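Quick illustration, no need to memorize.
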Amino acid sequence: MPTSSPTEKRSIIIKRYNVVEAGHHGGAWKIAYADFVTAMMAFFLVMWLINATTEEQRRGIASYFNPMAIQKDVPPPVDNMLGTDASPLATTAQAVVVHEGEFSGHKADNGRGAVTAHATDQSTQIVPLHDRPAQPGETAPTPRGTQKAHQAAVMREIQAAIGANAALHTLRDQVSITQGDDGLHIQIADSEKESMFALGAVEPTEHAKALLVTIAPYLARMAGAVSVAGYTDAAPFHSGSLSNWQLSGGRAAAARDILVHAGLPDWRFHQISGYADRDLAEPAHPLAAVNRRVVLVVASY
């Protein structure tokens, strides 16, 4: 039997709970996870580099990305770097600047093409030597003074080859070979007696083809990119025929095709261009035959 009085008030206990959503329903975890994935990617990239490179290459990478490198790690001024196409990650201790005539004590860099030497300071530098990889059969660049002498020798050889060819002997005055600051220039121009291209056409004459075929082997022996430029005289073109722009560009392209078929590799060509009558050889005589020409330039490097 209840002992309390019927009129006594009962105590009612009410329990209230605050419902909190689980933390994973927010977006903060995504940022943390992205940081974790980025860190893991960087970690595995470092592990791969450690496995795929040599100790010397790893020192080179560390030196390249070290913003606090001391002054002695900075390579000396490059006055006459040997022109070779080496891997950016040199496998020797330090790249050394070699001046003309200083070849004693140097050796090849494990077949990669760079000529280096061990210096007393064993710091490693990454020195890019060229802006493109070496191509099969490419002649190694030489110091600028030696290059000028080589160009002069090639110039004499081309002139001698043209003079010795009975079919081209009469055209030797139409071939002009000069040395400029940008390289070796070979100009093949028309004369009043002999044209290198048919009037209003881009196809070279047989004499022009023979000249280009004779010149091609000498260009192949030289290092440096080859450019071909075509020029016309100032004679106005008639409606329905090729313009001077089309003639000059087409003749330069035709000369390039003949050189390629004669053995000059296609990758050697840097630029094929046509200048119409915008750069006359004889401005005082805009209709002169010598204004109609093709100029080959073997660039200095």
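The longest strand covers residues 183-189.
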